[in-house]
């Protein structure tokens, strides 16, 4: 249906796409992903005939793109650009009717059928309610829907969308993506959409193509493409890849860009955590290059998950289990030679107070979150434990963790 074969293009001396090859088959809904400036819009411009290739070929519905006349191309491909401005005061209805231009000429005036096609497109996109308003006075999201209506009115085989959701709020993003899926599934329109949101791509598209360095870097189903290594390379940041059980799709959760200052002096640091208080601490310390351990964490907790993700050695217990002698011994082993021990903001009760045993004997500095003092669920046991520690070892109580300042 749409085939790129060693496509190359640039602007003057600047080469943007070197060698792009992939195909979009009839009925597919493909997302084109890539970071800013990789040439996604440039590729769309080549398909719509605005920019000639400098090498390779594009075939549209089996025809060589170079040989297509504008009218013929427009009957096969509709383009929804990133932004579209008009110089004149056209109404919404005027703009949507423009979708019929490839079919109308001086011999064939706009017919009742043309008007019905435009009417249906306006209903589908819910733009019929503001049909008489001036296009230039609409919000970005409303304009986006109008341009989509124009594309539908064109009755193309293929729709190319350049970031169709960039101007939309969350509600309208999902609505527009649902609408595009509907066009794909019910109206059998093949779709190639440039998307920045990989989670939307995962949720709605059957395939994802990733562009990088002027070439196709990856091409496959969302499940094949969305893995941690591929995504961290693409976005150059730390992120989690998770299955969203509600929609049964893989999604990413961005964490942070990889610009953490690496420490000149890597330390051994043990973090006492267990539920979710340790997440940021574990992540920041690991990013800085420190050797981190953790304990005693609940197996189902966020802290355990981040340990798993960051490969942090830890002592674990199952949910609703209390810290036993075995776990306590392992925890002591991990913290005994540490250069610092950090106690995260976690609730202390009968189940985990043993976590604090042996702290007075640690070699390094001891940091404990201040909130611990306000949540003694152990009838004073916790306070007595802290008093014992303080007889032997200084405790730095902290409110806000900041590895850069302390370590
Ligand atoms: N008309 C132009 N003249 C010269 N260079 C251009 C022109 N249009 C785009 N470029 C350059 O070509 C490269 C690719 O641009 P393009 O808009 O295709 O990227 P993109 O992947 O769509 O980016 P984004 O995700 O930011 O929209 C960029 O480096 C851009 O600066």
Automatic annotation (TrEMBL):
Q: Which GO terms describe its molecular function?
A: ATP binding; ATP hydrolysis activity
- Claim: Transport is one of the keywords in the record: yes
Keywords from the UniProt entry: ATP-binding, Nucleotide-binding, Translocase, Transport
SUPFAM superfamilies this protein is in? P-loop containing nucleoside triphosphate hydrolases
A Pfam family that the UniProt record links to this protein = ABC_tran
Domain (ABC transporter): residue spans on this chain: 2-238
Cited NCBIfam families: PRK13548.1
Q: Which PANTHER family match?
A: HEMIN IMPORT ATP-BINDING PROTEIN HMUV
Q: What name does UniProt use for this protein?
A: Heme ABC transporter ATP-binding protein
**Which species does this protein come from?**
Blautia segnis
């Amino acid at each position: 249906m749409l085939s790129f074969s060693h496509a190359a293009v640039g602007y003057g001396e600047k080469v943007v796409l070197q060698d792009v090859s992939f195909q979009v088959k009839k009925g597919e809904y493909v997302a084109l992903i890539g970071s800013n400036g990789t040439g996604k819009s440039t590729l769309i411009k080549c398909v719509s005939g605005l920019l000639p290739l400098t090498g390779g070929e594009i075939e549209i519905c089996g025809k060589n793109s170079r040989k297509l006349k504008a009218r013929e191309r427009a009957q096969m491909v509709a383009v929804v650009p990133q932004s579209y401005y008009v110089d004149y005061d056209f109404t919404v209805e005027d703009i949507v009717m423009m979708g019929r231009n490839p079919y109308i000429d001086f011999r064939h005036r706009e017919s009742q059928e043309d008007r019905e096609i435009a009417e249906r497109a306006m209903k589908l996109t819910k733009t019929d309610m503001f049909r008489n308003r001036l296009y230039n006075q609409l919000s970005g999201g409303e304009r986006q829907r109008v341009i989509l209506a124009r594309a539908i009115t064109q009755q193309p085989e293929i729709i190319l969308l350049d970031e169709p959701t960039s101007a939309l709020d969350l509600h309208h993003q999902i609505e527009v993506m649902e609408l595009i899926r509907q066009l794909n599934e019910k109206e059998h329109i093949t779709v190639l959409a440039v998307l920045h949101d990989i989670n939307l791509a995962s949720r709605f598209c059957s395939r994802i193509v990733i562009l990088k360095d002027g070439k196709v870097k990856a091409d496959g189903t969302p499940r094949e493409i969305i893995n941690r290594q591929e995504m961290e390379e693409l976005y150059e940041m730390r992120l989690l890849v998770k299955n969203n059980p509600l929609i049964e799709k893989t999604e990413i959760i961005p964490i942070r860009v990889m610009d953490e200052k690496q420490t000149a002096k890597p330390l051994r640091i043990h973090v006492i955590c267990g539920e979710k208080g340790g997440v940021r601490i574990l992540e920041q310390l690991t990013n800085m290059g420190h050797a981190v351990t953790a304990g005693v964490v609940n197996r189902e907790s966020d802290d355990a998950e981040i340990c798993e993700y960051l490969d942090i050695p830890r002592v674990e217990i199952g949910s609703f289990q209390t810290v036993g002698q075995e776990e306590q011994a392992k925890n002591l082993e991990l913290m005994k030679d540490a250069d610092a021990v950090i106690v995260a903001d976690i609730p202390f009760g009968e189940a985990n107070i043993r976590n604090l045993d042996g702290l007075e004997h640690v070699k390094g500095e001891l940091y404990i979150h201040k909130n611990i003092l306000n949540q003694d669920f152990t009838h004073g046991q916790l306070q007595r434990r802290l008093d014992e520690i303080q007889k032997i070892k200084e405790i730095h109580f902290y409110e806000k963790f900041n590895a850069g300042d302390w370590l």
